[in-house]
Amino acid sequence: MSAAFYxxxxxxxxxxxxxxxxxxxxxxxxxxxxxxxxxxxELHGKRTPVQLCVQSVSPDAVIVxxxxxxxxxxxxxxxxxxxxVDRSHAVKLPKDTYFVADLIGCDTFDTDGRAFGKVTNVxxxxxxxVYEIEHGKLMVPALKRVLSEVDTDGGRIVFDAQVLKEVGLxxx
Length: 172
Fold this sequence. Notes:
Blueprint: E1 5-15, E2 20-25, E3 38-43, E4 46-58, E5 61-66, H1 72-76, E6 82-86, H2 100-103, E7 107-110, E8 115-124, E9 129-133, E10 138-141, E11 147-151, E12 156-159, H3 161-167, E13 169-170
Parallel strand pairs: 7-12
Antiparallel strand pairs: 1-2, 1-6, 2-5, 3-4, 3-6, 4-5, 7-8, 8-9, 9-10, 10-13, 11-12
């Protein structure tokens, strides 16, 4: 169930006169861009492998030159696309943390065996993430005490039934 590709940056605009682009980082760890030389550009539903050179990294912007895009006019065609990496180039996560892309689509259950549907979104609130189940049917804070099991490879998340009754927000 794990995602094969991860979006790590949104191509926001061109930068300078040599075809570089500014990325809005879509990762918690912008240092992951340092040394990155191979990636994919996802544009109009198609992923294309690219070679790149990262020119600068800051918390809110990454400047990248992509081979084959030498002018601002050429680079502007990439605007709105995503810079992606495959699983083998993804950062290593600490224990009990997950890529949002791997959580979306997981089936959810509680320890009493009730099924709630698939994770359709994950909201990053600052305090803790919130899992949206079936487009708002259920909202669950991603707290250790509510997460009984998370198996992204198997596409399954199990919530502690008792804790879910306390912290889950049910639509009806």
